[in-house]
Amino acid sequence: MKSLEQKIGKLLAEKNLTLAIAESCTGGLLSHMITNAPGSSAYFDSAVICYSPESKVRLLGLSEKLISKYSTVSPETAKAMARAVKKLRNVKIGLAVTGIAGPDSKENKPVGLVYIALSYGKLTYAGEFRFKGDREEIKKQASMAAIEFLWKHLKV
To answer: Residue 46 class from Cβ within 10 Å (0-12 exposed, 13-18 middle, 19+ buried)?
Structure first.
C-alpha cells in the first residue's frame, strides 16, 4: 500500500505539476515528508523555511504591511506565502504552513492554531486547523494536515 505522500507524488508526476513549499511552524518537516516519497525530485522543486516574520519578508517578499495588519499566523499570510513561493520558484503549486507550535502562545493566538494554504493556477485556498499536543506533535499534525490538504485539492 502506498503512503499518501507517494500517491500525491504519482498524481503530481502524471499531471506534470511541480511543487514548492513555504514552511513556518513545521520548520522543514513537511518538505521532509514530501521528499520521503521515491522519485520526488520529479515534482518537488524546493522549500523556503521562513520561521521569523523578517524571513517571510526577506525570503518570500511578503509585505511588512500585510504581516502587521494580519499577523504571521493568519489565512491572509498563509495565502500570501503560498502565492509567493509559487511565483518565486516558478512552479505550478505553492503550499504554505504557518502557525503556533508552542509551547507559548504568540500574538494573542493559541498554541496549535495553524493555517495551511495552497496556490494553484489563479486560485489560492486556505484552511484553519487546531491541533493539540506538545510542540513536536503539533508540527507532525500540521505537516500531515498540509499533505491531506494538498491531496484534497489535487483530487478536485
So the answer is: middle
